[in-house]
Amino acid sequence: MLKTLRKIASIGLVSETPPEPDELLRVGRALNDRIAAVLGRALCIRHVDAGSCNGCELEIQALGNPYYNLEGCNIRFVASPRHADLLLVTGPVVKNMEAALQRVYAATPAPKLVVALGECACTGGALGECPASLGRVSNLIPVDVAVPGCPPSPARILQGILTAVGG
Amino acid sequence: MPVRRWWERGQRIPGASSARGVGVDAEQWPQVARDVAASGGVLLGLWVSREPGGDAAVYGAYLTDPGVLLAELALPAGGQPPHYRGLEDIFPAASRLQRAAFDLSGVRSSDPDRRPWLDHTDSYAFVRVDGEGVHEIAVGPVHAGTIEPGHFRFSVVGEKVLRLEEHLGYVHKGLEQRFSALPILQGHRLAARVSGDSAVAFSWAYCQALEGMSGCALPMRALWLRAVCLELERLANHLGDLGALGNDAGFAFGLAQFSRLKEDLLRAVSAAFGRRYLFDTVVPGGMAVDVSADAARALAAAVRAVCAETVELRTIYDEHEGVRDRFTGAGRLEPQLAARLGVIGLAGRASAQARDVRVDLPHPPYTELPVAKVVHQDGDVAARVAVRFEEAQESGRLLGRLLSGLPDGERAVTVDAPADGAFGVGLIEGWRGPVLVALQAGPQGSIRRCHPHDPSWQNWPALEYAILGNIVPDFPLINKSFNLSYSGVDL
């Protein structure tokens, strides 16, 4: 217990360390204000992997580490699309996930936002369209913002979310 | 006949450090499998190749003491639809591979389980468990967290799991077909995306097969840099898992600390290689990027710092009674069962299955850089955590050696496309286990066929056993302790 407390004390709050000129924190602050203005509460995100290689998922998970302080920006990931304001969709939409993605979209209450995340979600990526894959996310559901990158960095993901909320 | 006899009869296959292929007839096909099993070998992969004309062949790749043994059974087109004897009674992991191979090729095995695996056209016939008070819990394909899609069907009494059945294939995207449409010198990009968390392992395995077929000798610098990337990938994934496992045991402190350390590592990787995740760094002929002496020193310092903190955090995990209570005994996979199921890689090493390609069949630079194999016996979550902790330290040690001793020389050489019909295999110990790529060249620099194989194929069925008798709320923890790939097996 003592070691745990000592560790917490010795690391301190990494997300607020001032000396580093960090573009990410600026994005984080702006994001906080705009979400508060538009939604007046926390933004709830539901992630859907529609056929990803799992690379994008690693960077979405990184958003939760202490550096990005996502929850400090009033953004959190929720377990059900019924609780979500925004769908974050990765991967090309493969045939075996077509029905699931459509059901998740239908279950998300309006008004809803969709961010297509990563090269595959934006363009179909390395796979394109083939018998097993429908390609880009906008081939199936309306997309508000597309964030390219393979995978996009956590900062780019935050920017994408900001753009969607601001639009 | 002992497996050595098949090995002696085999022809050398280029690519992996030690691989041989042997053509077999229908009678010998199961005999090879039996002989491999009797000698303590495991099934690495099974796939079917079918020509447009109708000629087909089924391949069984085995990991044996002398190396990768590939058995090929030709199934010529004739009056009868092609058919082969299934190996599921010898290697249980073969069943899903055979069912997937049928969905992809139309070539059927004798496996009595004929339910489609990758083809989701019809609803899936789960095995029902009857009895008083038994009910089902259906989870997925879309899960509650940021993970890949798949379906789990639990049959439970109260909170106790009587049976778990997995239904995967949701992210099937036609990878093998896509490979066949690519020039062979560009396939490494797709290989890196078979399972993104194993990008280095898959792209190296692909390039190893290709370079072997082309007879291309790599500069030592390129091989050392590849090993740097592979160990960074292992370290980053282990750090991520150690944090998530702490979190699943109710210790949020662990997630905060390890996700911070992983971010520290990724930022150091980005400073050295220009990208946080090492997609497209391993390319045919060598490396796409080089690392300056200064960058190598900075990266080594970052790795040292991360590993030093990991040692400190291990003490905290070990001494935390709540964490120890959740880890110890949960999701136990007994060594005997692990051997019967042919479990490989990290999960295998936590259940006394002492295989590590870097040690058993070393290829450069591991031939010059001995790796300490990490093996535990208990087979529970605690053992899989311990393997991660110790392998993270070992990767840290290797990275220190690699980064301080990078040989001078070119980062890459030119590779020519191999001749039509050339065949090679690549085998690399990724963070999850051995990654296999079987590659056959087509005419004019094309790919006739590429089959990527993720070790998750072998280990997913083991999870169905590890959960038995545990309680439903422990499933996320037990599942995470295996952390298997969906994309890697859905192809």
Which stretches of chain A are low in confidence, meaning pLDDT under 50 for 5 or more residues running?
Answer: 16-32
Which strand order do you get reading across the main beta sheet of chain A?
Answer: 2-1-3-4-5
Tell me the total number of β-strands of chain A: 5
CA radius of gyration of chain A is: 17 Å
CATH superfamily annotation of the largest domain in chain B? Cytochrome-c3 Hydrogenase, chain B
Overall number of structural domains of chain B: 2
Find the structural class of chain A using helix and strand composition.
alpha/beta
Helix % of chain B is 40-55%
Question: How many helices of chain A does DSSP assign?
Answer: 6
Structural class of chain B: alpha+beta
Distance between the termini of chain A: 47 Å
Strand content of chain A: 5-15%
Describe the strand arrangement of the main beta sheet of chain B, using strand numbers: 1-2-5-4-3
**Total number of distinct structural domains of chain A:** 1
Mean pLDDT of chain A: 82
**Separate helix tally of chain B:** 17
Rg estimate of chain B, integer Å: 22 Å
* Overall pLDDT score of chain B: 95
- CA-based shape of chain B: globular
Distance between the termini of chain B: 35 Å
